[in-house]
Design brief:
270 residues, mainly beta, Porin, twelve-stranded antiparallel barrel, 14 strands
C-alpha cells in the first residue's frame, strides 16, 4: 500500500473523538452483543474471502430485561460467524450470522447483519501510518434481541498503526429503520483500542479497549446512566491463525459487570 496523507486522517480522527466526547444522552442496552470489537484498518485483499468467529459471554451482569420478552445477556453465549470478501483495494463486504445460547441452554439463530467497509486512507504496510474510513451495517434481528425490526449503523473509523503498535477509534451512529423508535434521533456510541507488541514476543500484543454508549443525540444524561466497559485484551498473530482475547469490566451501574470475548480468524482456502 502507498503512504497516505496524514492531515486528512488526523482530521477524521479528531472530529470523531471530539464528537464522541461531547455528545451524551440516555442509553438503551441491547442483549445481543454479537460482536464486541473496535474496527481498525484490517481489510481483505481484492478477491480474498475471510471467515472469523466471534464468541462472547456474560458471567455477571443485569438479569432485568429492558422490554417484555427480551432475552438478557446474563449467562448467555453469543457465537457469530462473520464472512467477508475483498471487493476492491478499499472496499470490503461482510455478513454476520449471530446465534445465541441463553441461560437456559436454548440455542437459536438471532438474525442477519450485512456490512460494507470503505477504507480510502490506509497505512503503509511496512512503515505504518494513519488510516480512516467508514463501515455501514444493515441488520435484521429477532424481537427477543431488539425491539427494532431493522436497524442501521454507520461506524466512523480512524487511527494510527505503527510497526509495533496500534490505536483505533470508532464513532458509531445507529438508527431504527422499522420499530417503536423509528424516526427518533440517532443513538451514538464511542470506542477506542490501543495495543503494543511485546518486545521479545512480537506475535503477542496486549492492550486495552473502552466502549461507551452515548445515547441519543442532544439528550443529556448523567454519567452513571451510560453503559461503559473497559477490556484488557491480548491479540495473538501466529500464522495461519489469529486470535483476540478480552476480559471486560463494567464501569457504570447500567453496564454488565463482567464480559469475556474472543475473536478468531479461521484459515481456509477456496
Amino acid at each position: 500500500m502507498c503512504p497516505t496523507p496524514m492531515l486528512s486522517a488526523r482530521s477524521v480522527i479528531l472530529a470523531a473523538t471530539l464528537l464522541g466526547g461531547l455528545i451524551t444522552s440516555p442509553v438503551s442496552q441491547a442483549a445481543l452483543q454479537d460482536e464486541v470489537q473496535v474496527y481498525d484498518d484490517s481489510i481483505n485483499e481484492v478477491g480474498e474471502f475471510g471467515v472469523e468467529l466471534h464468541i462472547n459471554t456474560t458471567p455477571s451482569g443485569s438479569a432485568t430485561p429492558n422490554y417484555p420478552g427480551e432475552v438478557v445477556s446474563l449467562h448467555g453465549w453469543r457465537l457469530t460467524p462473520e464472512f467477508s470478501w475483498g471487493w476492491t483495494r478499499t472496499v470490503e463486504l461482510g455478513l454476520y450470522v449471530p446465534t445465541v445460547m441463553d441461560a437456559q441452554g436454548s440455542y437459536q439463530f438471532a438474525g442477519l447483519k450485512g456490512r460494507i467497509k470503505w477504507l480510502p486512507i490506509q497505512a503503509d504496510t511496512a512503515l505504518g501510518g494513519w488510516f480512516a474510513g467508514v463501515n455501514f451495517e444493515l441488520a435484521h434481528v429477532k424481537p427477543e434481541y431488539d425491539q427494532a425490526k431493522y436497524t442501521t449503523e454507520t461506524k466512523l473509523i480512524g487511527g494510527y498503526r505503527g510497526p509495533h503498535s496500534l490505536i483505533s477509534t470508532n464513532l458509531n451512529i445507529g438508527t431504527e429503520v422499522e420499530g417503536p423508535n423509528a424516526g427518533q434521533r440517532p443513538e451514538m456510541s464511542f470506542s477506542i483500542k490501543a495495543t503494543r507488541a511485546l518486545k521479545n514476543h512480537p506475535a503477542f500484543s496486549p492492550g486495552v479497549e473502552l466502549y461507551t454508549d452515548l445515547g441519543r443525540v442532544g439528550q443529556a444524561v448523567v454519567d452513571r446512566d451510560q453503559d461503559r466497559r473497559l477490556f484488557l485484551t491480548l491479540d495473538v498473530e501466529r500464522k495461519p491463525w489469529e486470535f483476540s482475547f478480552g476480559i471486560g469490566r463494567g464501569l457504570t451501574p447500567v453496564a454488565d459487570t463482567w464480559t469475556l470475548k474472543m475473536i478468531t480468524e479461521i484459515p481456509f482456502s477456496l
